[in-house]
């Protein structure tokens, strides 16, 4: 069986040398954790989070040892994109009951409260670094989420199963081939 950490490495690459969390503990507060050895609600500080970081770092749960935000893995994301500096947390998500193929395994760029990442351009730079492959990218402000990649026309064509316009046919087919596994049983993807 492939572990989530292995899927993260396949999709995002390995943890980059020199990319350390440092003082960043955003994931310890923002993320929901539901693993066999640890659970924590979303937007709630971990009970082990102290003023200097993790108070049980040496014996932290496996999920905390093996999970890394996309900033630690994606070389195209600038140094200033570290979550505590940028106000953005980028994570690979695995949805247990996806509504469509773009939700099953995807990247979410989450705008943190008080962040100025949109006005200072860092959000656009992060999206540019992420929106070039066959991994869906969502942007969320914590209330709503929007699919940023693929674009609307491609996404609608992928989901409809109908023949796409010629201009986007190769991209639509690439997405369909890549995400065929997640097609609803009652409507296989075209192609």
Describe the structure.
Helices cover 29% and strands 17% of the residues. By secondary structure, the protein is of the alpha+beta class. It has a 4-stranded mixed sheet. Helix 7 (152-160) packs across helix 8. It is globular and about 55 Å long. Mean pLDDT is 89; it is low at 184-191.
Q: How are the elements arranged and paired?
A:
Elements: H1 4-12, H2 26-30, E1 33-35, E2 38-40, E3 49-50, E4 53-54, H3 62-66, H4 83-86, E5 88-94, H5 101-104, E6 105-111, H6 122-130, E7 137-140, E8 145-149, H7 152-160, H8 169-178
Parallel strand pairs: 6-7
Antiparallel strand pairs: 1-2, 3-4, 5-6, 7-8
Helix pairs in contact: 7-8
Characteristics:
single chain; 191 residues; alpha+beta; four-stranded mixed beta sheet; two-stranded antiparallel sheet; 8 strands; disordered C terminus
Structural class of the secondary elements?
A: alpha+beta
Mean pLDDT, as a whole number?
Answer: 89
Strand neighbour order, sheet with most strands: 5-6-7-8
Helix content: 25-40%
Q: Give the overall silhouette.
A: globular
